[in-house]
What we know:
By secondary structure, the protein is an alpha+beta fold. The protein has helices spanning 37-45, 77-80; strands at 2-7, 19-23, 58-62, 65-66.
Amino acid sequence: MKLTVKLNQLYKSFEQGFQFELNGSLVLLSGVNGGGKSQLFEIIRRKNSIQPQNELAAEVFLDGNSVSRGMIGHRSFKENIKPTWF
């Protein structure tokens, strides 16, 4: 699987025209605090954390097919962890 993203506006430390690709069935992002990991997810989701009412201008493609904002879900790690001992 290949996720391709192009940002069509300035957003935080990312310039207009910024592009990136994530390849593989499982992609792990790691890095120091403040390194931009959350901002990459905001760009993919087109959710503006600075002005939540304004959608980010970005193009997202999965394996060459356009992905609309409504097709992208988001759950935190904590939301996905369910204790099995209850």
